[in-house]
Specification:
Layout lengths: L3 H10 L16 H5 L39 H4 L10 H15 L9 H22 L1 H9 L1
Helix pairs in contact: 4-5, 5-6
């Protein structure tokens, strides 16, 4: 199911899923908590959110990669404050963390659906990183 490498990376970064006692959620933002309609896991039908409605990348029951949220803000995805000033070192680390979790190379033995979701997540992360890294594109994104 999950290789030892992925689990080790999650533990090192402190991104172990919220359904494991004593660990932080993968990610959490106010917009995801405010959503009233909680989506269900495409694979097992379980609720992919953690106990407090955290937005997670993987289903806590079956560990399947969930589809990306197309309405998610680049700043919340990259765990940055929504401002023109961005810590590029923190941005780069978050980019690397997310790519290690969702890069398509790590889903070669998974179902085609998860491969597709992985490609979408990876594309979204790449777009967010490129947009927020350059000051001009970051400013244009802020005003749009």
């Amino acid at each position: 199911m999950w290789g030892g490498r992925a689990v080790a990376l999650l533990r090192v970064w402190g991104l172990w899923p919220s359904w494991v006692p004593g660990r932080r959620p993968l990610s959490c933002n106010a917009a995801s908590q405010a959503r009233s309609n909680s989506p269900r896991c495409w694979k097992c039908g379980g609720s992919p959110g953690g106990p407090m409605g955290e937005d997670v990348l993987f289903c806590p029951q079956c560990r399947a990669l969930q589809p990306p949220d197309p309405t998610r803000d680049y700043f919340s995805l990259m765990d940055c404050n929504r401002s023109f000033r961005v810590d590029t070192t923190k941005l780069q680390h978050r980019y690397q963390q997310l790519q290690r979790l969702v890069h398509p190379d790590f889903f070669s033995r998974r179902s085609q659906t998860e491969k597709d979701f992985s490609e979408k997540h990876s594309t979204l992360v790449n777009d967010a990183y490129k947009t927020l890294l350059a000051p001009l594109s970051r400013g244009l994104y802020l005003v749009s």
